[in-house]
């Protein structure tokens, strides 16, 4: 089957490479020529484990010309839907992808994979194409290929049987329950899924904050709670809160949408609020040992919002580093992958941080160490050389925000 993918960011790239490795003929389009060139040269524009192996083997074609999509039966759109200042969604990239597809004369089925609010596919895509669907992705950064090939479910939103049969064919070789539903339901599934996962994290952090105050380790609590099959242990790891390009943005968008449709989402607001304060708890913990941070050399290990990614977006590292600097600390930092992005996303903040090229060097330059990302390499206890360590993410379980 000939499949197109518009938008070759992290979701689009993984989608294109994965469908190609299932044996489909794939054409990936992106307006960013440098990105297209990098992909053609076998270089992944984002750090994702496995991406370059897939790139080395793929038969997928990468181009910046929409005209090369002619002949595709199905085109997925995986462009960004970043938040606007009021938390609602910026659909400019989606609209522009739709326009470019129309102008190129494409007439096949069009299926957004980008996370969009209920009603968006019908409003923004359906007026211009006869065959339209919606297929949310559940790819987590760092394990995106594994998630693509071993999903818990495949959600197929559709309006017409032709699109549904194309989607079924595209995913034919993947074993997973298929849920077929209308477009708005499929769109809401994605938000409800991400919001529930954020809720689990915020819940673990709430219990963690109580645990900390009474000298209890929240991980022991959650290990027990998670054995209840109605609850499950995953996403109950307490720490400095969730970040990334999905949970915070999707939560804000769902809150804005809920208000628009006439419901004040009290629980969703609470998740947001709980998470917003969580990074600062690590700074407060440091201050229990060092009441003033003025001139203190603080080593920050990890800038990425989670391990195995170079992504720092909405990560707790931004809040923590800002707060440390504001309180007069001298900040030393190390991340195996995300330093470059941290510099780019926060140019002003970044000039005041001293970066190191290894964890050991960062620790040696510091009086105390904060762990912000649970990268595997930080679990080498010989790194710390007797320095006080405060865990924002659980590595050793010695002293952290909820333990
Ligand atoms: C998330 C979802 O897991 C994917 O299913 C979804 O497709 C994706 O968003 C998306 O909407 O595109 P991702 O943001 O890559 O994926 O990362 P997660 O692994 O879900 O982690 C999100 C945040 O929660 C991270 O900051 C992580 O450190 C934090 N987290 C996660 C915790 O603090 N505790 C946990 O127990 C689990």
Structure description:
This protein has about 400 residues and is an alpha/beta fold. The protein has 3 domains: about 1-180, Rossmann fold; about 180-275, NAD(P)-binding Rossmann-like Domain (Rossmann fold), CATH 3.40.50; about 280-403, NAD(P)-binding Rossmann-like Domain (Rossmann fold), CATH 3.40.50. It has 16 helices and 13 strands. The protein has helices spanning about 10-20, 35-40, 50-55, 90-105, 120-125, 145-150, 160-170, 185-215, 220-225, 245-260, 265-275, 280-290, 315-325, 340-345, 345-350, 360-365; strands at about 1-5, 25-30, 60-65, 75, 110, 135, 155-160, 180, 295-300, 330-335, 355, 370, 390. It has a 5-stranded parallel β-sheet. α7 (about 160-170) links the parallel β7 (about 155-160) and β8. The termini are far apart. Uridine-5'-diphosphate-glucuronic acid (UGA) binds near residues 139, 194, 235 and 247.
Question: What tags apply to this protein structure?
Answer:
41% helix, binds uridine-5'-diphosphate-glucuronic acid, five-stranded parallel sheet, Rossmann fold, 13 strands, 13% strand, alpha/beta, 16 helices, 403 residues
CATH class descriptor of the largest domain: Alpha Beta
Low-pLDDT ranges: none
* Percent of residues in helices: 40-55%
Q: Give the overall form.
A: globular
Bound molecules: uridine-5'-diphosphate-glucuronic acid
Strand residue content: 5-15%
Order of helices and strands: EHEHHEEHEHEHEHEHHHHHEHEHHEHEE
Structure summary, number of beta strands: 13
Number of structural domains? 3
